[in-house]
Amino acid sequence: MTTVTTRTIAYAADGLTMIGHLALPAGVDRRPVVLVGPEGVGLSDVERRRADALAELGYVALAFDLHGGRYLGDPEEMLARCLPLLADPDRMRGIGHAALDVLRAEPRADPDRIAAVGYGTGGAIALELGRDGVDLRAIATVNALTTGRPGEAARIRCPVWAGVGSEDPIMPPAQRDAFTAELQAAGVDWRLVVYGGALHAFHHPPVDHIVRPGVGYHPQHAQRAWRDVVDLLAECLPITE
To answer: Most C-beta atoms within 10 A of its C-beta, which of 61, 86, 140, 220?
Structure first.
């Protein structure tokens, strides 16, 4: 196991001071980069640990913030902030670009080798970066089968992997179909994995606050989804080229 160095980074986005978590692998050389986006509740130790795990694998990883250092455990407060955000592609892109700027300023980061991994709202932001034409090597999303503005998926220049629970009421079959139809029409290299019996946010360990109906942890599928993400990175963003 390699030694990982972490630090907190403050940066401006969406009119807020965001508080991101940067994880660096051992060594001094430049490494490929992974942007990690959190669920709508905001950055938590779950995403911080995932950034650390990616750094263990040899990536420079930034778990970015959504709410100016806040974690929105109240579902109504979370929806009040996230629904307008999800309806505004330019705001999502602004949050994503601000995080990318932090990564590109990191001396250990290779700015020509970047992937984006996102969960829920963070996954929607990863997709919007692709639709904005950002030169990414891969996009991976869980619980984020969001569609974009007409025609903009054609600007995605990398493979897209998406995971969703079969019983997710927030991302039902009609949403899955719309998402895959958009990517197929745009000629994107896409994959969709439907995890049988899983609910929304199946990857996220249980929390100590009220959650929306249809949300639930599935430990086996959580491990499988993480392995799928790591495999995608190994394929599209290998540590050595």
So the answer is: 61
